[in-house]
Amino acid sequence: MKKKISSVKFKGTKEQEAKLLGVINKYKELPGAVMPILQEAQNIYGYLPIEVQTIIADRLDLPLREIFSIATFYSQFSLSPRGKYEVSVCLGTACYVKGSDKILEKVRSILHIDTEECTTDGKFSLTSCRCIGACGLAPVMTINDDVYSRLKPDAVEDILKKYM
Amino acid sequence: MEKNQAEKTINIKINNIAAKAKEGQSILEATKEIGVNIPTLCYLKGMNEIGACRICIVEVKGTKNLVASCVTPVEEGMEILTNSPRVKASRKTTLELLLSTHRKDCLSCVRSGECELQALCKQFGVEDENRYKGAMPKYRQDCSTLHLIRDNSKCILCRRCEAACKNQHVAVIGANNRGFDTQIGCAFEKDLNEVPCISCGQCIVNCPTGALRERDSCGAVMEAINNPQKVVVVHTAPSIRVSLGESFGLNIGANVKGKMVSALRRLGFDKVFDTDFGADMTIVEEANEFVNRIKNNGTLPMITSCCPGWVKFCEHYYPELLENLSTCKSPQQMLGAIIKTWYAEKHNLDAKNIVVVSVMPCTAKKFEIAREYQSAAGSPDTDYTLTTRELVRMIKSACIDFKNLADEDFDPLLGVSTGAGTIFGTTGGVMEAALRTASDILSGGPQRNIEYKEIRGTDAIKEATYKIGGENIKVAVVSGLSNAVKILDKVKAGECEYHFIEVMSCPGGCVNGGGQPIQPSGVRNFADLKATRAKGLYEEDKNLPLRKSHENPTIKVIYETFLGEPCSRQAHKILHTKYTKRSKF
Ligand code: SF4
Ligand code: SF4
Ligand code: FES
Questions:
Q1: Which ligand neighbours the alpha carbon of B202 most closely?
Q2: Hey, is the C-beta of A76 within 8 angstroms of any chain B C-beta?
């Protein structure tokens, strides 16, 4: 899927930047340095916003677009931060058959975000997943460690409100 | 040892005919040598050898899958079929699949007639352009810049633009995302005007389809011509005369100066001048600036400033070298400035009613005319600039029978130029022209040596040392920005003793500019466009009575009656400019 670019304001800290520069120095001279640097940068920041990719491009003396093209090619990289609350709706077969697509639609319309996006206040992010092994409870939605099962679309709003 | 290997010949069979090939050659090249072409789309020799499009596939006996001939070397005893039913069917299917996500509005597409995709569809008998139906990706046009328009709905993902841009050491466009979502774009899907694109247009001339095109000013120019209140003046860059003819079926490099001038008159321009005059003016100013820098311990090496793609590149990527750039405006801008000041005054014209149009081999000129510090008379020095391609379209739409036109001459005064101005259109030409003038100044009189052969030719980097007026002057000439970077890094590190450097952003200089006629990959990969077009310019230079810029009679008059000395205060006001630091990201 096409990677979504976040509009959430970048909140990187000095400590994170120091860590990133350490990582860049560690790999800098190695061939294929970009992959491990992007991987560790994502661990540090949780995602790879333009500010982070620009630091990497600058230090490696590579065009920003080349970094971006790698970040958008591999599925493990995300351009959007995770929210304080990560909402995940299962679209595995069992959940899907039980109408989880409608649950997802509901969450989308309440939070005004699409999957792989984060609300501008940084509170909620949304993903869809493929089967979390709770098929007996379908359809399932999780918010961080909380699991909501046998969901009806109408119940979604009240659940989300608890976190707002 | 290596050389011997490269020359070792091997025996192969192509389409059942015995043939010899050089070891290491690709199947594509070996086949070309026996007079059979293999179609290509993504392949650009030395630049984009990624084997991605699979239009060049051939059958190789003993190999199960069809192989991409552009990236597969020949081997002893290889039996190759380039034209079998299986090959043809595969090519046709490839084309049909490309068409399934292509916006097929050929009738109104700017590239129609010169599109490689269109030509191949015809060649391989595609009958149903809608054979494969399915999802169409969502596209967004990028119209953000002054010089080009990017339309992914015509893109076939050959990545030639990506390679061309990377070859310019810019690399702001290329393929992002993956699979069906893959699209050409900038980092973070920004518009081109938000990234450090230098407007060179190399992506356009290398694109096989209508996905990349220049922003068109033909309509605005025709409107000015049809406005009786306006005096519309046109001038053409040195390299146009050796490229324009290609679009009318003439040989590459044919000099069509005379026909070009008649065509421009038939289009309705009031005056037809020669940018070569502007080039002469630039040389007089630039050579004097150089001599002043040498005599007064100014910043050296001095670097030429006539290429707007290079200037923008310097501003984005080497801002620390802006002091080294000559402050001279480019020939286009100098001529525009002179038309709107000296010429206007002389002919009692109001500068506001003059429309200056230039015809350039270049898309970066479209950016240049909108720059700050480029309006000597209070309005822009140049109002519109057309690429060679736009001029071709205007000539065709006016139904002018170009090939059969009689030759005509440029208008007097600003149509007068020297051979030094002419060779501006190719790599090495600006330096040679500048040396012709600088050496006369530094030696205190006319010098006999006028040809600086060491800095001619299409080598990417050329260096020479000339003894001029008792000093050893060390010069370098580079074209293509990834080559320039090699020299610039040395200058930055203080590791070189050059006095003077010429940089042109397009490989080979303006003759191979981003605004020049489209030549398909089949021609680009096998003909030396740059050298062939440049040859026409050197021939013209050789046959001109005046070959030094400072001998241009109109220029003498302008200094005597209007500007005073070269690099005088007045000359600075009208003919020089300033630069701006820009971001690298
Ligand atoms: S105009 Fe030149 S710099 Fe800009 S995208 Fe095209 S090739 Fe790259
Ligand atoms: S824009 Fe043109 S050159 Fe670039 S990938 Fe698409 S078709 Fe190829
Ligand atoms: S794969 Fe050979 S030309 Fe594209």
A1: 1
A2: no
Judge if A155 and A91 occupy the same domain: yes
CATH class of B2-83: alpha beta
Ligand 3 first shell, C-beta below 6 A: B 40-43, 51-56, 68, 70
Q: Which residues of B touch A (CB under 8 A)?
A: 166, 170-178, 181, 186-189, 195, 584-585
Q: What is the pLDDT of residue B404?
A: 97
Q: Which amino acid is at B144?
A: S
Q: Evaluate whether B376 touches B574 at the Cβ level (below 8 Å).
A: yes
**B160: Cβ below 6 Å to ligand 2?**
yes
Cross-chain Cβ contact B177/A57 below 8 Å: no
Return phi, psi of residue A134, to 5°.
-120, 40
User: What is the C-alpha end-to-end distance of chain B, expressed in Å?
Assistant: 45
Q: Which residues contact A67 (CB under 8 A, 6 or more apart)?
A: A34, A38, A53, A56, A57, A60, B187
Q: State in words which class domain B219-575 has.
A: alpha beta
At B3 the pLDDT is: 47
Q: pLDDT class for A4, splitting at 50, 70, 90? A: confident
CA distances (Å), origin B508, targets B27, B30, B297, B424, B460: 28, 26, 32, 11, 7
Domain limits at A94? 85-161
Report the pLDDT value the prediction gives residue B469, as an integer from 0 to 100: 84
Confidence (pTM): 0.93
Residue in chain A lying closest to B585 (CA): A64
pLDDT value at residue B497 = 87
Q: Average of pLDDT values for B146-170?
A: 97
Residue A8 lies in a domain: no
Q: Would you say residue A96 has pLDDT above 90?
A: yes
Residue B479 to residue B168: CA distance in whole angstroms: 10
Tell me which residue has its CA closest to atom 1 in ligand 3.
Answer: B51
Please report whether residue A132 resides in a domain: yes
Hey, what CATH topology would domain B125-214 get?
Answer: Alpha-Beta Plaits (3.30.70)
CB contact under 8 A, A73 and B187: no
Is the distance from the beta carbon of residue B52 to the nearest atom of ligand 2 less than 6 Å? no
Q: Over the stretch B229-261, which tens digit does the pLDDT of each residue have?
A: 999 999 999 999 999 999 999 999 999 999 999
For range B345-362, the mean pLDDT = 97
Identify the CA nearest to B504 among candidates B303, B335, B319. Answer: B303
